[in-house]
Design brief:
Blueprint lengths: L2 H7 L1 E2 L11 E6 L2 E6 L4 E7 L10 E6 L2 E5 L4 E6 L9 H24 L10 E2 L8 E5 L8 H20 L2 E2 L17 E3 L4 E3 L7 E2 L11 H6 L1 H10 L4 H10 L9 H10 L6 H19 L24 H11 L6 H15 L16
Antiparallel strand pairs: 1-2, 2-3, 3-4, 5-6, 6-7, 7-9, 8-9, 10-13, 11-12
């Protein structure tokens, strides 16, 4: 099935969700509803169509600060949102605001699909058919009880994908780290047959900004490190206190932005990361070293092909990066080696040590 099949064979219901935007079309095609990206010639499935289907008896599925979720059909839910969450007062402004939120959600959805990461989120859209009804439609997520082996594999896969989403500059703002390191809202996580997914994304994913203006200090850093907060919180939650102390001692900077500090923290606190994440970190270090050695400057791999989302990312001095990353390639650093390397790196930053070749900083075998 192609985007043209959907466009030519379906019914355009874009005016139910979008106003004044030409990039996307919302199409009811056969028994499903799709969003078609006209610029990218791509599409995503939104939910099963309820056209001609008897609606079930309204049943409350859940309730939160943002509103109440009801079951509409066997495959579709609607969230009755609290009106106070909108700043707009007149109907036209409210419709535009909801349409703009839908564009943000669709932008993120297609961005994630391109990277193969949209499967860990359940997105929906705001209805603009009636300005007085603040409704958000989404597919119903069906729960699944996995075996222990399945659950472990699902969790590792989920954390790895969440890390990549965080690397892209996005996070779920009501999941892990919203208030502090220990804050984990499992109410927004569900396990399906396909894997772990996050729900309650009617505002779209949180976009990590460079300047943290949140009332909760360090919010942007925790969002950037959300994958790490989740992993530690599930495997050894006591060590979240160590991460909080690290933030306090490092001006609440995201630890994921510093390969040196991340590796040291992991080793010093005996955190056993999944193999795929270890390989991802090592591969990222190799790419940084290759880019630095070529004279093009240190390039953090997660910044390559980054979408237009404002992200907290500082420039890194090329020579310093080469030294840090070369040291960190050694997976078997001992505590005394770490302390020595930290001293060397500190001296380099303060100009107390002459710059040498990268290989001069590799621990002897």
């Amino acid at each position: 099935m192609s985007p043209n099949d959907i466009l030519n064979g379906g019914t355009d219901i874009s005016n139910h969700y979008l106003k004044g935007h030409q990039q996307y079309k919302i199409i009811r095609y056969k028994n499903d509803v799709y969003a078609v990206n006209l610029q990218a010639n791509d599409f995503v499935h939104l939910w099963k169509s309820n056209k001609g289907i008897n609606q079930v008896v309204q049943r409350k599925l859940g309730q939160g600060a943002g509103g109440v979720v009801y079951k509409k059909t066997e495959d579709k839910a609607r969230k009755k949102r609290n009106r106070y969450i909108y700043n707009e007062t007149d109907n036209e402004s409210k419709i535009k605001a909801k349409s703009d939120k839908n564009i943000k959600i669709l932008d993120q959805r297609f961005m994630l699909k391109k990277k193969g990461l949209d499967s860990i989120f359940t997105f929906g859209l705001h209805s603009i058919k009636n300005s007085t009804d603040d409704l958000f439609y989404m597919p119903i997520v069906k729960k699944y009880k996995p075996s222990i082996e399945e659950e472990t594999a699902m969790f590792v896969d989920f954390v790895f994908k969440l890390k990549q989403v965080n690397d892209m500059g996005m996070a779920h703002d009501d999941y892990c780290g919203s208030v502090n390191c220990s804050n984990i809202n499992l109410g927004n996580e569900m396990t399906t047959q396909e894997g772990i997914v996050l729900i309650d994304i009617d505002e779209g994913l949180y976009e990590i900004k460079e300047n943290d203006q949140s009332k909760f200090r360090g919010l942007n850093s925790r969002m950037r490190d959300q994958w790490l907060l989740l992993y530690i919180g599930r495997t050894d939650p006591v060590k979240l206190d160590a991460l909080e102390r690290w933030y306090q001692g490092n001006d609440y900077c995201p630890i994921s932005e510093s390969p040196e500090q991340l590796r040291q923290f992991i080793q010093q606190n005996d955190i056993r990361l999944p193999v795929n994440i270890q390989q991802d970190l090592t591969q990222g270090m190799d790419q940084c070293i290759a880019a630095s050695s070529s004279g093009s400057g240190a390039v953090i791999p997660s910044a390559v092909e980054k979408p237009s989302v404002p992200v907290a990312r500082k420039g890194i001095d090329r020579q310093r990066a080469v030294r840090q990353l070369t040291v960190l390639k050694d997976m078997d650093l001992k505590p005394e080696d770490i302390l020595e390397m930290r001293k060397k790196l500190k001296d380099i930053r303060e100009g107390k040590e002459n710059l040498e070749k990268p290989e001069d900083h590799v621990r002897p075998k």
